[in-house]
Amino acid sequence: MENHVGSVVLESDTEVVYVEYDNPFQLPPPPSDEWTRFVCISDTHSHTFDVPWGDVLIHSGDLTNTGTLKGFKKTMEWISSLPHRTKIIIAGNHDLTLDRHDDWYEKNYKGWHTKPEVRGHLRANSPISPFQSLEPILELLKGPKATNAGVVYLQDESHTFQAKEGGRTWSVYGSPWSPEFCDWAFNYDRRDGKRLVSQFPKTDILHALTHGPPLGIFDLTTGCTRVGCRDLTNRLPCLRPRIHLFGHIHEGHGAYVHEWYAGSTETPEVQVENDLDGDYIDDADDYMDDGVNLPEPYNLSEGGDRTVFVNAANWPMGRHAWGPNGRSPFGGPGFRPIVVDLKD
Fold it and tell me: Which long-range contacts (CB under 8 A, 24 or more apart) does 290-294 make?
């Protein structure tokens, strides 16, 4: 038997968010044809599980455990088989082979890929190496089979799409980066956060499809450390995406609907463990000032906008991973895919 967590639904006049539910195949449909259903997942690490129907599937990184060709094959076969018309994916810090900035993978692969494997494009009798070739992995992510299945892989780039035939056009920006975290891939020094985040454009929706969270929003670890990016938090009042999707911190799985006020520079602070009475530390404290520093020439919205913040990590971790029936499986109770219905 599965752990029973119960139903958790967040509702407004333009958003309906299913955070927790018993059966992925028995969710109510969107309110009308004027709504679009986004199904959010993250940190699947080459595991597979039941995913609700939707117009758009969004995966926010950690597609694999360590970025091997074998791991990508399993993940992409699963994602490609899902019925969603559009499937938008990014990398995370575990997808090691995709991080080729400054030859990062070439310099670090021996620390992770220690088991010999034949490179995907070599013959069986070729010399074996732990090094993972990038070309066959990119073929899985961006080749004809992925394209025909509706898969779009984003790495620091924007994309526009129609979720439904004749429907409105949505825009998304995807970034795999997160602040330094145990020397994995796509990590950046917090001193470089402002430069990186300033490149994020304002898009119609789903702007900040990032792997790592903003500081103070579903970023609290079991060690009571907030590990999110302060610069990303400071930029959000300018960008105000309809959905801000991330993962990375497995125990932070959850969702929150925030309404922005006109001219506001304040971002919410919300965690799964809201009973911790503030006894935590910030990884960012040694690097950044507390004040909000908004970049120019971006203007604040006139107000009335809402952002659905989603940590969609599906790896069960933390005290919510355990129930009377044992530990929850990947994508199981407490760590379901989070479903967001948005009014077009």
Answer: 292/234, 292/237, 292/265, 293/194, 293/234, 294/234, 294/235, 294/237, 294/238, 294/265
Query: Which residues of the chain carry a pLDDT beneath 70?
Result: 1-6, 114-129, 204-209, 273-304
**How crowded is the C-beta side of 263, counted as CA atoms within 13 Å?**
0
Positive/negative CA dihedral, 321, 281, 108, 139? positive
Question: Which residues are within 8 A (CB) of 131 and not within 5 positions of it... i.e. 6 or more apart?
Answer: 106, 109, 113, 119
pLDDT in tens, 208-245: 567 889 999 999 998 888 989 999 999 999 888 999 99
Question: What's the pLDDT score for residue 14?
Answer: 94
Q: Which residue has the tokens 């991973």?
A: 321
* pLDDT of res. 206: 54
Q: Return the ∠ at Cα 140 (arms to 138 and 145), rounded to 5°.
A: 125
Determine the pLDDT at residue 291. Answer: 35
Burial class (CB within 10 angstroms; exposed 0-12, middle 13-18, buried 19+) of 123: exposed
pTM: 0.88
CA angle 138, 144, 146 (to 5 degrees): 65
pLDDT at res. 294: 35
**Residue 170 and residue 179: Cα distance in Å, rounded?**
28
pLDDT the model gives residue 44: 97
Domains and CATH numbers, the chain: 8-121+129-343 (3.60.21.10)
Q: What is the length of the chain?
A: 344
6: which 2 tokens? Answer: 């119960």
Helix or strand run (H / E) with residue 152:
strand 151-153
